[in-house]
Amino acid sequence: MICAASKKDYYFSERIRRRMERIPSHRLTAVEAPSGFGKTTAVREYLSALSDGARVVWRTIGEENRLGEWEVLCRVVGEADPQCGNELGALAVPWDDECLPRMEAALAAMRHDGEVYLVVDNYQFVRSRIPERYLRAFYGALPEGVHLILVTQLVNPVPRAIVVDAQVNHIRREHLDFDTADIAAYYGQLGLRLTGEQAEGIRRLTGGWAAGVYLTALAYSEAGTLQAANDVGALIRATVWNKLSGADRLFLLRLCNFGSFDLETARFLNETDWIDENILDMLERNGFVWHDMVERRYYVHSILQLYVKKEFDACSGAFRERVLRLTAQWHEKQGDNFLALRYYALIGDFRAALSLPLATSDFSSNASAENRKLLLSVLDRCPPEIRAEFPRAMIVFAFALFIYNETERVVALAREVERNVAASAMSDEEKRRLTGEIVFLTAFLAHNDFAAMAAGYKRAVELMGGPTSIINMKGPWTFGAPSILYMFYRSAAECDVQILEKNLPYYLAAARGHGAGADVVMRGELQFNRGDFEVAEITAHRAAYAAREAQQLNVELCAHFLLAQIALAIGDAAEYRSAVGALREKARASKSAVHLNMLGLCEGFLGAECGVGKVPGWLAEGDVASRVRFMTRPYANVVYAKSLLDAKKYARLAGIGAELEKAAAFYPNAMARIYTGLHVAAAHEALGAAEEAERALRGALDIALPDGVILPLAQNFGALSPILKRLLAREFLNAAALKRISALAKVWSQNLQCARAALLGAAALLSEREREVAGLVARGLTNDEIARQMHVSVATVKSFLTRAFRKTGVASRAELAAWLLRWEN
Question: Taking CA atoms, which of 326, 424, 495, 551 is between 20 and 30 Å from 59?
Fold first, then answer.
């Protein structure tokens, strides 16, 4: 471990030296230990001692400016090679499987001279972690001479599956601990003599904790006595805080809410135009503050920051309120209204909080459990008379409540705002406009009854005299669902389509054209699901054009998804490639998590229901709640259910079938109810539960047949045929309906096979296990490694490879990898 008497006097144990010396021979080094163990200092000092030819890129993540993990990785690579960083940043997050070869290609082409060390400090503060296998692929693809170092606390560690990898240099607490010999050596380096008993006593008192050893040494050198290190506050107070001047203390107290700061921040919080040289000298000499000369920022160690916060809590109320107000004003000045809101709320200045120019997009883009608590806290604590002064802000807050599915509170707040507006002294025109904004907002609560919603939109436009000026309507129109028919088909398909066609103009007028083309997509989807493929194709192209002209990406993606399905239905591989290519290109270019998850839903449906492509891992595993919004989950459940069916996990699907059906019936979503019913029926049939299978399928037929929505039945005809025949025999199904389903199933199956053969070539002949082996070969794994990962024998792996070689016409592992890459792209 390391410890310092000053910034230029460090002690390194032999254990940490050996571990640090392994950094240049590993692509990834993960340094994990609690606060105060010297992680950052150890890495920094080791890298600074390397030869001049080595380049170090260091990025420290602050608690106040958390970034997503992928964004952090892109930025740290971009500082070393801007072009590579830009190429990585253009990839989708959350990723789909097709991003892997593009990521690997970008990293392989990364330009660098000599050794490069990419350091991410305070890695525990990154959010939106990428899946383990993508992180593994990332560091595995780093070119020779480029090394990634992640420094983190154990509150949010590097995934276990990563650090146990033999290719990863894992530095843990035990490597950073001080043992008795280390303590004696360190004290000797400081010129302090210890007996063996005293060194052991310090080890017991500190537990080998570097900060404790350091602080105990400072106290011992000054007082001549050893002080228990389990009282960290007392040690900090005695060795650091009490040594500071009054001006130094005041400076740190005013900045206690910042883990890092620059001089502009420091001047603002200290209400001065310049910082005294003595304070700057203190920052340079303090062992708990690091000055990043490149970023021109000061980073305060969490141990010192926590202590200063406790001192701050003991200050007078007037001083605390002044500092918190300045903190809020600083964040407001920087345009970070969310942090400003938080600090204004802490001091109870709700007028200032509600005066912030918060937009609905601020809440939608920062949706989290923590910000939900902030929202509810402000509304609960803010006096009614102040809420009455800010009706526009309250409408924004009401929309935020809608985002968090707080329906009852939306209604209550909307009614309150309406009363306040009516009783206010504002002009009649302004009253009408604000009342219209409230009506527009509350219309969303009728989702997915578009007739009821449209009545609200129509009245809102009349009151507002035009579109909304408060609610930002730039988000995805379908909340991330890839189908309009899924969203608004409730019980009678033709009637529901006509309702949207008739009433969508009212919404468009209120929302500045948001959602244009949605009615055309829904019409095309109904035509498609009735088997009218040629008519549906014409309608889908019209929908894509209308949405593109209106710059409605979400609706356009729905149209391209429909075109991809139609292409499979008519056996047109070229049109499928074009539609899916446009879908992927536009979704990825948006860099919107909602649209990227929407792309995952599209590809998942095509993979599960159509057998073209792969179902994203998160969908196949049922990781739905963390990826898609509440109103979109039943669609994701459809893909998950079919994935379970294809994986022959019949018992699991049968077990959760009732919950899936309940979710589909909530709004209701008729398409989700149809697919869920037939999937659950197929699972029961496979388990030999004929009665349950018939009951589930009858529920789906009761919805689908009156509306002529028979394509879902045709797509799954093979699994459903025995059940359908039994229902026919028992007169729960007429012969004409079964004949229509059977005829469409034949057309669908033949054209789909034709399209798949053209799309996949010989790959269509590969079994799932053969494709899996080919994929692992492409990643560079040996036969032994593949066998261990797949839990099969090496002989079985060789057998899979032999068949894959024969079917693809290749003669080597390298040719198979190249062939697979061409197929996947």
Answer: 326
Backbone angles phi and psi of 767, in degrees to 5: -75, 170
Model pTM? Answer: 0.73
User: Which residues touch 684 (CB under 8 Å, ≥6 apart)?
Assistant: 650, 654, 657, 690, 692, 693, 696
d(CA 773, CA 761): 18
Distance of CA 733 to the CA centre of its chain: 45
Cβ–Cβ under 8 Å, residues 723 and 699? no
CA–CA distance, 784 with 103 (Å, rounded to integer)? 26
Q: Is 593 helix (H, G, I), strand (E, B) or coil?
A: helix
Q: Are 644 and 615 in contact (CB under 8 A)?
A: no
Q: What is the pLDDT of residues 415-463, one digit of tens each?
A: 999 999 999 999 999 999 999 999 999 999 999 999 999 999 999 999 9
Among residues 627, 485, 449, 450, the alpha carbon closest in space to that of 558 is found at 485
Q: Which amino acid is at 330?
A: W
The CA-atom distances, in angstroms, between 31 and each of 115, 150, 365 are 19, 6, 32
Residue 117, helix vs strand vs coil: strand
**Residue 602: φ, ψ to 5°:** -60, -50
pLDDT in tens, 735-762: 999 999 999 999 998 898 788 877 876 4
25 and 37 in contact (C-beta within 8 Å)?
Answer: no
Cα→Cα distances 591→11, 70, 437, 594, 599, Å: 46, 12, 30, 9, 11
Going by C-beta distance under 8 Å and a sequence separation of 6 or more, which residues neighbour residue 654? 680, 683, 684, 687, 689, 692
E strands, 601-641, where? Answer: none
Whether cis (ω within 30° of 0) applies to the bond prior to 825 is no
CB atoms within 10 A of CB 145: 16
DSSP E strands, 492-646: none
Bridge partners for 146 per DSSP: 116
